[in-house]
Amino acid sequence: MNRRRSGSVLSGSPVLVGAVTVIVTMVAVFLSYNANEGLPFVPTYSLTAEVPDANGLVRGNEVRMGGSRIGVVTDIESSPQEDGGVAANLTLELDERI
């Protein structure tokens, strides 16, 4: 008479448990590393804005509306103005739901 082991297949195989743990850890590291660029698979669109003063802005800054994160600053360039001043051109990557 053959007896079957009770319990799941996952708990019986240390190699399978290790492989699942490594995969889950890799996914968590990937998501946390790319958190500043937004979540993967969330549709976004690009927007360019010209502002007179971009003091304190850097690439990777969050764009917020009403306290909620809606995007990120992806590029900052300066451009001369006709009056002799300088403006900043910002490229923003915003969530499509906004």
In short:
With 98 residues, this protein is an alpha+beta fold.
Strand content: 35-45%
Q: How are the strands of the biggest sheet laid out side by side?
A: 1-4-3-2
Oligomer: single chain
Number of helices: 2
Low-confidence runs (pLDDT<50, min 5 residues)?
A: none
What's the helical proportion of residues?
Answer: 10-25%
Provide structural commentary.
- The chain is an alpha+beta fold and 98 residues long.
- The chain has one domain.
- Helix content is 24%, strand content 36%.
- It has helices spanning 9-12, 14-33; strands at 44-51, 62-65, 68-80, 86-95.
- The longest helix is centred in the first third of the chain and has 20 residues, at 14-33.
Topology (elements, then pairings):
Elements: H1 9-12, H2 14-33, E1 44-51, E2 62-65, E3 68-80, E4 86-95
Antiparallel strand pairs: 1-4, 2-3, 3-4
Jot down its keywords.
36% strand, 4 strands, elongated
